[in-house]
């Protein structure tokens, strides 16, 4: 790990610069260790694939935080509990499903089966509020971003870009290959928390029909399936 100073009130801890679950778990372990210290003056800790960024007030210094980090032991691989959220997806709304299937030499149903067969680690949230970058995609259904992005992708759209999958919490321009859509509200500014999942949790997709999609969309009391897994 390398500690880098960003500006007078921010610094970064950079691990091996690769997209790896093992590296990302180190980033999250450091975040948890820092949070346990409850350091007065640290305002926000943000994680990405291999980097942790700390924002802090003038009451503390780069050197003080760096000294604390160097004293922390994040090598302890004690089990922790993560949440696994099952997200319903209607693949009939897959704007690019047929094109992606043809590109991969598969049928649309085979793409759906492979996409729903895994639990995906949330490496980070970014791009827009609540957008989860999910790792662990089956390489056989990977496809690079579209050459020409769409001007607007509907909220709830589920897409693939390279060997990642993700969900659009809000309507937005975007270049991911859209293979389905969830009726679940992923981001709600009036809800606490506004986003119900976080980095380090997992997403499992479940295929539903158009009729099931509509029923879930209209059910104000719909409960997402959640289970715990030790990682």
Automatic annotation (TrEMBL):
Record-level Gene Ontology MF annotations: 5-oxoprolinase (ATP-hydrolyzing) activity; ATP binding
Residue ranges of the TM segments: 120-141
Gene3D superfamilies assigned to the protein according to its UniProt record, in alphabetical order: 3.30.1360.40, Cyclophilin-like
Pfam families for this protein: CT_C_D (PF02682)
Catalytic activity, EC: 3.5.2.9
Annotated InterPro entries: CT_C_D, Cyclophilin-like_dom_sf, PxpB
Domain Carboxyltransferase: 1-197
Swiss-Prot/TrEMBL keywords: ATP-binding, Hydrolase, Membrane, Nucleotide-binding, Transmembrane, Transmembrane helix
ATP-binding in keyword set: yes
Keyword Hydrolase: yes
Domain of life: Bacteria
Protein name: 5-oxoprolinase subunit PxpB
Organism annotation: Macrococcus bovicus
Primary gene name: pxpB
């Amino acid at each position: 790990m390398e500690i880098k100073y960003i500006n007078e009130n921010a610094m970064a801890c950079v691990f091996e610069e690769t997209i790896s679950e093992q590296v990302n778990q180190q980033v999250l372990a450091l975040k948890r260790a820092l949070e346990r210290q409850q350091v007065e003056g640290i305002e926000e800790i943000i994680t990405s694939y291999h980097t942790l960024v700390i924002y802090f007030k003038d009451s503390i210094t780069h050197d003080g935080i760096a000294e604390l980090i160097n004293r922390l032991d994040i090598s302890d691989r004690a089990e922790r509990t993560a949440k696994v959220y099952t997200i319903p997806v209607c693949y009939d709304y897959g704007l690019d499903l047929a094109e992606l299937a043809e590109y991969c030499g598969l049928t649309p149903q085979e793409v759906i089966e492979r996409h729903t067969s895994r639990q995906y680690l949330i490496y980070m949230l970014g791009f827009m509020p609540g957008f989860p970058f999910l790792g662990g995609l089956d390489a056989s259904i990977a496809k690079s971003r579209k050459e020409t992005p769409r001007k607007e992708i509907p909220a709830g759209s589920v897409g693939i870009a390279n060997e990642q999958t993700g969900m659009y919490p809000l309507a937005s321009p975007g270049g991911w290959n859209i293979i389905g859509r969830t009726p679940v509200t992923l981001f709600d500014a009036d809800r606490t928390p506004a986003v119900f999942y976080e980095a380090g949790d997992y997403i499992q997709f479940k295929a539903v029909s158009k009729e099931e999609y509509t029923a879930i969309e209209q059910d104000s009391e719909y409960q997402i399936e959640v289970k715990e897994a030790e990682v």
